[in-house]
Amino acid sequence: MGHHHHAHGAGWVLRASLTATLAFTAFEIGAGLRSHSLALLSDAGHNFTDALALLLAAIGLFLQGKPADQVKTFGYQRAGVIAAFLNAATLGLISLVIFWEAFARIRHPEPVNEQIMIWVAAGALVLNGAIMIALHRGQKSDINLRAAFIHMLGDALGAVAIIMGAIAIRYTGWAYIDPVLSIALGGLIIYTAWDIIRESLNILLEGLPRGLKLGEVTQAMSDIEGVLDVHDLHIWSLGSSTHALSSHVLIEDMPPSASDRILKRINDVLCGFGIHHTTIQFEHMPCVVCDTGCQVNAQRHDHAHDRGHHH
């Protein structure tokens, strides 16, 4: 119930932020053309990708809230991760366009209207700051919302840079400050996007979830009374905050009713790591792990009886 309210609240914030960002982008393009400021036009380009980021985040949030069905048995949790990856990728592309335009402007500098730059950038700072405050709580646990939040953070820092640059142009008259600011903004955009690209790709490639260490989880499971060995262990993320685990666990030969105590203890320990979706296969004969997975030695195969448990 709490998650549903959070998703509904975040969805409203994203839709309101999208409308405000699109309106401001149109205004900033007009102001950039009037003042001949490439920094403002670069920021308008970044603001447009912010609008795209907010749209993708809203779509991702809607999809990841849909329940599992007969085909999507894990639900649509990865939708938000895909949205985050696309967001970060668009940031990289817009940065390349900004670099290209900035280098052209350095070769052929143009005078700019620094007063318009200051007022428009101040407006951008207020807008992005308000959206960041609204997204702050949700971005800690959701990579999709964090991608949108980082877009806004980049824009807010860009607005500060434009204000400082416009003040510098006013007192020095040095027109090169405008394209140099654009290059700095492009670098900032790439820097902020890289972390999102890396984490979303890790989730999509089913890598170890951020903050977990395979050795620590294996050791914690091995330390449980009755567990002789833990192997063929896999941990991955279904979405940005839902982790899953599958593993083979060697125990003494005992009836399922007796092994249930061990299984409960394993799941309790894994909950401490934030892993709530587990598939544990109990074995009472050592097996050989090879490239094709876990296989019991051929000569022992007739005597081995594996028991699979799902939580």
Structural write-up:
The chain has 2 domains: 2-204, Alpha-lytic protease prodomain-like, CATH 1.20.1510.10; 214-310, Alpha-Beta Plaits. The protein has 8 helices and 6 strands; from the N terminus they run αααααααββαββββ. The protein has helices at 2-35, 38-64, 78-107, 114-139, 143-172, 177-204, 214-222, 256-271; strands at residues 227-237, 243-251, 275-283, 287-290, 293-296, 307-310. The longest helix has 34 residues, at 2-35. 37% of the residues are buried.
Number of helices: 8
Give the proportion of residues in helices: 55-70%
State the end-to-end CA separation. Answer: 22 Å
Q: Which overall shape is indicated by the principal axes computed on the Cα atoms?
A: elongated
Residue windows where pLDDT falls under 50 for at least 5 positions: 1-6, 298-307
Number of DSSP E strands? 6
Task: Outline the secondary-structure elements.
Layout (H helix, E strand, L loop, with lengths): L1 H34 L2 H27 L13 H30 L6 H26 L3 H30 L4 H28 L9 H9 L4 E11 L5 E9 L4 H16 L3 E9 L3 E4 L2 E4 L10 E4 L1
Parallel strand pairs: 2-3
Antiparallel strand pairs: 1-2, 3-6, 4-5
Helix pairs in contact: 1-2, 1-4, 2-3, 2-5, 2-6, 3-5, 3-6, 4-5, 5-6
